[in-house]
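Sequence in, structure out. Go.
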Amino acid sequence: MKDMYYHADRFNNWPRVMIRISINSEEKSSLHRLRLGQNSNIGERAHYVLLSNDGKSIPEIAAHLSRNKHTIRLWLKRYIKDGIGGLKSSKKSGRPAKKAPFIESRLQELLNKSPQEYGYQEAGWQLNLLRHWFKKQGVHACDNTLVKSLNKLGFVYKRFSKTMPANAPSSAEKKVRIAEIVEAIGSNTLSEIEVLFLDESHFSNQPYVSRGWFKCGEKKR
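Output:
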């Protein structure tokens, strides 16, 4: 049984709505599951109902949980009217989002092609490239919006699959060349030898591998 009744305020002599909730064992079990199984607002609201069922008044519940009495009363009324469904937060109405659908539709097209097809030098799509492209279309897209849209569409940020370029020397050829350099240095009769090198040559048997946004499970070389 869930109902409300009136009583007269002894000071102001005007009727005040009092809330009294009595629930059956099935409802009680459902509320207990919400209370224990969800770390969310709805779990706390279920607790309000359970305490009311135990005979606690709204002021007692508010004092026990350090909550506002008006908040407790609101959710108890919602439960009386709509049951457990009334404990859920209602979505705020507002203008429908227009930017996100446009961004998502264009991301599908962009990420199916290489950035180089759009005049960029990078091999994989980066957030700064996507921001720049959308800006040229007159759409401001922040990193947070792009990441949310990419994740929603099933894209992940990962490395390209490793592969050696066709004209890359083999490991044996590299070792031979290194041995030639070492021998040339060792045969030098000068007291001092100056060695010059390029810091970004990525001299390694494993080539430099960049990252990009790709469809989950997809491999790009």
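Check: Confidence is low (pLDDT under 50) at residues 4-15. Residues 171-186 form the longest helix (16 residues).
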